[in-house]
Amino acid sequence: MSAAAAKATAAVPSIPRDDDGPVFRAPWEAQAFAMALTLHERGVFTWTEWAAALAEEIKRAQAAGDPDTGETYYLHWLATLESLVATKGVTSTETLHRYRDAWDHAADRTPHGQPIVLQAEDFAR
């Protein structure tokens, strides 16, 4: 486990982990985790700030009916990541939505098992 991942798992005790460190159910979860590590290392937020924002996101989701079985943990992680980068001015909510819509469009046209590639027309919708 990297030093950054070790710091994150110490600061955010809810991170799913085993004896070797964080565990992920899908590649996108590891990527979201890595993005948060990078943004923390660049000073965008502290782990204390991250943990509080993540706890609030999970609390909102539970109030809305999330059964909190652990299967949605990284959905909350991603929502927290999006919220904090918008709040901190790294990007805007509008830009996040624009890219999410473009990725959805690109994924819809990509055959299963092939890499998703964004193209200019993915942003035209």
From TrEMBL:
Locations of Low complexity compositional bias?
Answer: 1-11
Domain Nitrile hydratase beta subunit-like N-terminal spans what residues?
A: 16-102
Give the InterPro entries listed for this entry: CN_hydtase_beta-like_N, CN_hydtase_beta_C, Elect_transpt_acc-like_dom_sf, Nitrile_Hydratase_acc_put
Q: Which domain of life is it from?
A: Bacteria
- Annotated region (Disordered) at 1-21
Name of this chain's protein: Nitrile hydratase accessory protein
| Species per Swiss-Prot/TrEMBL record | Bradyrhizobium iriomotense
